[in-house]
Amino acid sequence: MIRPSSPAEGGVARRPQDCNSGCDGSTTGGALPGRGMITLCVPTYNRPAFIERLLRYYAATSSRHWIFIGDSSDPNDAKRTQRAVASWGGRLQVRYEACAGLSSCAALEHVSRLIMTPYCAFLGDDDFLCTNGIEQCLEFLERHPSYGAAHGKGLLFQTETGAAYGPIGMVRPYPQVVLNADSAAGRLRDVLTARVGGLLYSVHRTHTWRAMFAGIGRLSGTTNTNIFKDELIAVCLSAIRNTVQELDCLYLIRHTHEAIYKYPTIYDWVTDPMWFPSFQAFRDRLVTELMEQDRLHEPDAQAVFKDVFWSFLAHVLMNGWQRSRQPARVKPVSRLQVLAKRVPGLQRGWQKVLAIRQRWQDELSLPALLHPSSPYHDDFMPIYEAVTHAPADALVAVASERHLVSSKGALDAGAVLREPHG
Amino acid sequence: MLSLILPTYNRPGLLRRVLRYYEACQFPHRVLVADSSDAPAAEANRQIVEAVSRAMPVEYRRYDSALEVPMKLAEALEGIQSTYAVIGSDDDFFVPSALERGVAFLESHPDYALAHGESAYFVLESDRIVSGRCVGVGRYLQRTIDHASGSERLAAHLAQYTTTFYSVHRTEQLRRNWRRVAALPLDHLFDELLPSCLSLIEGKSQKLDELYMVRQIHSAQTARTRGSRGLGWVMGQRWSEHYARFQDLLAEELVGQDRITMEAAREVAKQAFRPYVARYVAKEVGKSRQLHDSVAIRIGARVRRVARGMPLLRWGWHLARAIRPMSRTAISLEALLRQTSRYHEGFMPIYRAVTAQNGHEVGAS
Asked: Do B274 and A324 touch (CB under 8 A)?
């Protein structure tokens, strides 16, 4: 089922073996950072428009990083994704892997086995890892062998229409976890008490990455749409094995939209018929890792796991329930606001005042990022361009994709990490 | 009109105490002692029942000592002829007048499935189970749940769970529900939850403003239960299987009650159960944390023990508590001992029953 790299239009997509860096999982010492040293692993399912957008961005920033696309799409969308890959193959180091029938974590595991660069990171097909941010992380990891992973600042944005292309309506910070504890147990505790999302986006050393995903796709007794398999095991293993640093550069830009893949909640998972086997697999894996990393005896590792995991579960279940009870906040519109809206130009003027205030108050707000004085402006603008300026052919594709969404249901059409057999 | 099912297990001292209480109250309703004790205790229990049977309508039935609670209750309920029934163990005391009010309420409110009232728990001085100084009384939460639909009542019930095990029920409903629970192999927490959830789907519950029941909190084993406790419940190998059965049974009941589809009913049951699981896990994690912090707990316990051992300090503490102004509906030992308490009259016979020692009453500490 696995195809070799697609031939590029007007050239041949380079293969990872061509990279100039050490490919055995070790760091490269004197190798030039950012030149074929990292592979971005992009699992995708039925979203060629996002892949097209992603590749356009990397081409615009002259990225030399490897991009491996693990495509579990249905045949029609798979063809469109292949065309996008072929059209950008001449300018990018991109490899297409047909992963039809593979779950997201199995696709990721498969792609991870093919990595020949010393570093790698996960990338959602609707998100961006800033080219310059990646290079800074690579440089940091090269200089600091004691750190296992690194990332920069994170952002979350929404387009006004909710589609792949369009004006950006909202931008806000997307905090990512920093892990500095000396022990694996401490880092596991930190990652489970912070937000678990985001850690897979950090630049990782490939040998750790492979270990994080090894065997996950084949875990017996676990269903495909399972937060244990898709995210939690890898995130926890990363925390157990790595200290993680955050750098002052723009790095992760996540697109949130209605069609985003939604994991089952922790409660869905606890009430799933396959809860116990998947929990068992998770527990055993983490206990083994804790024993190895902290040189613990099994009962001690079990105790650490119990303490950390139960607190996490209690917190997540309680928070999830409390959030589900909160009524949607509807801000009342005052009479003054209604009157103000009737005054010509007042609303636009007010928006400008707000933008100025936002620019000074929040360095990661849209007005701040759009201003040339922002330290993140240069890195943000190519992403802004990639999202707000749709190519003519993409508009046709988006229109047909919207039709697809309405006919198949939002989740089906939009799932990045959706499990084909889920 | 009413029968009291009194399950007991290897605790003749407690059975004697509670039957003497009902005898002293001239309890007018039929009491069925459902005994699954081992041989020596069973014989003692039989003699206790025989002794009080001359003064009140009490019947003794012996069950296999290996029988677990749901099966025993289901079997015990089979023979009940009265329209209403209430279950209370050998360490629980019902106030007869409140039971009668419960029956009257259910008689006049056919949309209600349960009635209960204000309830309290008490703790005897350390290592004392049958009688001794009463060292603490607190409120045992009971609630009114009167939402219109079964789905809403189920959600309200599990969002802030309080047991309905001791409520006055319509016998037919209670029998059917325990029969259904006994037929399923479930862990004891599902055993407890399921009948109360089924009852609340069937009808509303009313808390009456009267002292209804007083329970004893102690460390003795109360019954033969099945399954695991603590975090092992959710982490157990059989959790998923048990949860699926629990969800299905609730969904079936909701379909019949609210006329919704099975799929919708399953989702209602799943979402209603969510806060219960969340609270349960949080509580159990809190408990295990306490075990980790056992040094602090040990120090706190030692300080309290030393303080209790100082007669003057103890006397001053109780005097201060006894003379402070209290609401008529407050529930504490000092409040209930006051004649002005709304619940004083119902509480005093119970207080005498648990503090009497060899015919002499032992006062509060």
From this structure: yes
pTM for this model (two decimals): 0.77
Q: Which of A104-113, A359-368, B208-217, B301-310 has the lowest mean pLDDT?
A: B301-310
Dig out the tokens for B362 from the structure: 């032992």
Hey, what amino acid is at A50? F
SS3 of B97-108: the string is HHHHHHHHHHHH
Q: Which amino acid is at A28?
A: T
SS3 of chain B: the string is: CEEEEEEECCCHHHHHHHHHHHHHCCCCCEEEEEECCCHHHHHHHHHHHHHHCCCCCEEEEECCCCCCHHHHHHHHHHCCCCCEEEECCCCEEECHHHHHHHHHHHHHCCCEEEEEEEEEEEEECCCCCCCCCEEEEEEECCCCECCCCHHHHHHHHHHCCCCCCCCEEEHHHHHHHHHHHHCCCCCHHHHHHHHHHHHHHHCEEEEEEEEEEEEECCCCCCCCCCCCCCCHHHHCCCHHHHHHHHHHHHHHHHHHHHCCCHHHHHHHHHHHHHHHHHHHHHHHHHHHHHHHCHHHHHHHHHHHHHHHCCHHHHHHHHHHHHHCCCCCCCCCHHHHHCCCCCCHHHHHHHHHHHHEECCEECCCC
Chain B contacts in chain A segment 305-344 (CB below 8 A): 306-307, 310-311, 313-315, 317-318, 320-321, 324
Element (H, E) at A252: strand A244-255
Q: In angstroms, rounded to a whole number, what is the distance separating the alpha carbons of residues B140 and B162?
A: 9
Confidence of residue A219 (pLDDT cuts 50, 70, 90): low
**Which residues contact residue A27 at a Cβ distance below 8 angstroms, ignoring those fewer than 6 apart?**
A118, A141, A142, A145, A205
Q: Cα distance from A278 to chain B (closest Cα, Å)?
A: 11
- pLDDT tens-place string over residues B88-101: 999 999 999 999 99
| Cross-chain residue pair A321–B274, CB shorter than 8 Å | yes
Residues ≥6 apart with Cβ < 8 Å to B172:
none
Q: List the Cα angle A310/B234/A315 in 5-degree steps.
A: 35
Cα(B68)–Cα(A179) distance, rounded to whole angstroms? 50
- The answer, yes or no, to whether ipTM is higher than 0.85 is no
For residue B239, the chain A residue with the least C-alpha distance is A276
Report pLDDT digits (tens) over B35-58: 999 988 999 999 999 999 989 999
Give the span between the Cα atoms of A289 and A25, in whole angstroms.
19
Residues A222, A278 contacting (CB under 8 angstroms): yes
- State which amino acid sits at residue A127: D
Q: What are the structural domains of chain A?
A: 16-267+379-414 (3.90.550.10)
Total count of residues recorded for chain B = 365
Which whole-number Å values give the CA distances from B6 to A12, B45, B72, B81, in the listed order? 83, 12, 11, 16
Structure tokens, B191: 């055993």
b/e map of A38-55 (b: 16 or more CB within 10 Å)? Answer: bbbbbbbbbbbbbbbbbb
Residues forming a β-bridge with B361? B356
Give the contacts of B294 (CB within 8 A, at least 6 positions apart).
Answer: none
What homologous superfamily is domain B2-216 in, according to CATH? Answer: Spore Coat Polysaccharide Biosynthesis Protein SpsA; Chain A (3.90.550.10)
Which residues in chain B show pLDDT less than 50?
A: 358-365
Query: Nearest-5° angle of CA A369, CA A372, CA A373?
Result: 90
Q: Rounded distance, CA B114 to CA B313, Å?
A: 45
Which residue type occupies B336? L
Interface of B with A in 224-283 (CB under 8 A): 231, 234-237, 239-241, 243-244, 247, 270-271, 273-275, 277-279, 281-282
Q: Provide the residue ranges of all domains of chain B, joining segments of one domain with +.
A: 2-216, 232-292
